[in-house]
Amino acid sequence: MQVDDTPTQERLQARFDRMVADEVRIEPRDWMPEGYRRTLIRQIAQHAHSEIIGMQPEGNWITRAPSLRRKAILMAKVQDEAGHGLYLYSAAETLGVDREELLDLLHSGKQKYSSIFNYPTLTWADMGAIGWLVDGAAIMNQVPLCRCSYGPYGRAMVRICKEESFHQRQGFEILHTLSHGTPAQKAMAQDAVDRFWWPSLMMFGPPDSASTHSERSMAWGIKRFSNDELRQRFVDMTVPQAEALGLTLPDPDLRWDEESGHYAFGEIDWSELDRVIRGDGPCNAQRIERRRTAHEEGAWVRESAAAYARKHAATSSAAGETAA
Ligand SMILES: [Fe+2]
Ligand SMILES: [Fe+2]
């Protein structure tokens, strides 16, 4: 009989590497390298935070939606985003962190959320631009995550992506209606697209040459495509849609490039992204303040739920004793 005397750590690492290479999902019960766990916690938490902070710019328009139908759609969308936050916090918890701890990190500014939600929503047309561009960019980022090597994250993304495509369609439809309405409505739609276009391109993160986490995440099967690849796909998908809407994209350098088979686009102002990430965007302070207040005001809900769970556990353990 042959005895395998490789140290346990090495064997575990080899098994993990093999699973990733064979595209076998890593589950919470499996051994994983500490860096993989930490990277996933950071990414999933940031994603969860983005979902719940992302409710604010659109929640801003629920009371002012132009019709009952628009209001019902917008409410459903904002509720979906809350649901996405829940799936994702749950997925993060399977990695051994506590939701409370993640929320503390968000509230203290130690963990980030997507920079796009630090821009204000000034007109109703912004609901269209967010759905079409922001949810559209989110889909581009998230569809490959359905194949993420970590099971709970990949499975959460499948459902999220289905809902995101509804979000994108409703945004497109808002803009289509405005763009084919009065000249003032069309101008409002164009203005919203002008303001959200560049920040949407920044949602894919810094250029590959400056992206710190990309390579490792690709090797681990967390990320499938680089930031620049996803950004290019987004531009290629969106330009024909803008034409269908009868709206223009605010980039004089945007043109079809025969040679590469892609749309070429202008230089992104990365200093703006740096500024917004550092906390200096138009709405950073307001978003975090609102989130902290909502958390404090919701304390009684968490306390009641915990008290109910304790009572329920006490009753069922008493019932268990009787049965025994
Ligand atoms: Fe979402
Ligand atoms: Fe969405």
Distance between the termini: 48 Å
Order of strands across the widest beta sheet? 1-2
Structural class: mainly alpha
Bound molecules: fe (ii) ion
Helix content estimate: 55-70%
Q: Major beta sheet, specifics?
A: 2 strands, antiparallel
Q: In words, what does this structure look like?
A:
There is one protein chain. This protein is mainly alpha-helical and 324 residues long. The chain has 13 helices and 2 strands; from the N terminus they run H-H-H-H-H-H-H-H-H-H-E-E-H-H-H. The protein has helices at 8-21, 34-53, 55-59, 68-93, 99-107, 125-142, 151-179, 183-202, 214-219, 227-245, 270-280, 284-297, 299-323; strands at 255-257, 262-264. The protein has a two-stranded antiparallel ribbon. Helix 6 packs parallel to helix 8 (183-202). The protein starts with 7 loop residues before the first helix and ends with a helix. The protein binds fe (ii) ion (2 copies).
